[in-house]
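Notes, p. 3: input format for complexes.
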Amino acid sequence: MKLLVTGGAGYVGSHTVRALLAAGHDVTILDNLSTGHRWALQGCELIPVDLRDTHNLSRRLKKRGFEGVLHFAAKSLVGESKNHPAIYYQNNVGGTTNLVRAMQAADIPRLVFSSTAAIFGNPVSDLIDEDHPKAPINVYGQTKLVVEQMLQAVCESSEFSATCLRYFNAAGANNDAKLGEWHEPETHLIPNALRAAAGTGNPLTLFGDDYPTNDGTCVRDYIHVDDLASAHVAAIEKMNSSSGFNAFNLGNGNGYSVKEVITACEKAVGAEIPYTIGSRREGDPATLVASSAKARSELGWTPEHDSIDEIARSAWNWECHRRDNLT
Ligand SMILES: NC(=O)c1ccc[n+]([C@@H]2O[C@H](COP(=O)([O-])OP(=O)(O)OC[C@H]3O[C@@H](n4cnc5c(N)ncnc54)[C@H](O)[C@@H]3O)[C@@H](O)[C@H]2O)c1
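Output follows (327 residues plus nicotinamide-adenine-dinucleotide):
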């Protein structure tokens, strides 16, 4: 298929571009490079447009013959979203509204959207499936839920199709170490633990150890970024034969505590990682674990890198080699 990937210069987007290319698809990237990187483009054409630039966006999508869009472009820092809600709504909601209108004007019929576990808020069950109540507790999650609702309404009123993929915690890197996670600032546990170990980051602080979990630290579902990438390939290909609105939760179904993740990072690095215990972070539920049964059965998708040790090893491999690639 001839596909457009917004945010394809970012972390999850670039790994998905790699998987789409490997599956034989023709990929063009649209990105404003606000948090994305030129080194992640992998030889694809870049359309350097901001989704908020309605006019240019529409102009650049016309007459290109795109058959579908995978939409990763968004701002995704929970803390930042609290301090700058209007910017988050403008970028994530306004940007997606512009994208959908430009797609409709260019007759592009299908969209895969990067959604998030943050739309669920505080869990009311151990495993979070697609029907779990949606009650986001931060602005970032609100913007993603509003987009899901907008996409559902558009699908119900036209020939447009949208699939929302709600990731839990994306982690790890492709094994060839040519792509990996590089956010500034970095808020994710695994790269921060590894950088603390390597002396290239700040000392590690855990946000609370008094949660009602086995060791008192928060439990999360870490999913390897290459497994997210393969789910996107399956989702866009499935949309050739099915239409309308759909949503899938993507995780491993295994929860690991912050301390267990640090142990996995220590094994990968071969050294102890010192940390201090800080206070709880506002808006952090004790446990967030996905049920991905629907994705497994309807997309025929199976995560292939579900061990936390493997995820930590792949992230460490990237940390060790990324300096050669950040050009
Ligand atoms: N990383 C995770 O753990 C995680 C979890 C759940 C959901 N998500 C979602 O997945 C998507 C990708 O996340 P990521 O970690 O790869 O983020 P990222 O910051 O690495 O990538 C986002 C990309 O979008 C681009 N972008 C942002 N705003 C844009 C705009 N207005 N116009 C054009 N380009 C723009 C950035 O330059 C960047 O290349 C996001 O939508 C995020 O909300 C990520």
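The domain at 2-170+223-250 is CATH 3.40.50.720 (Rossmann fold).
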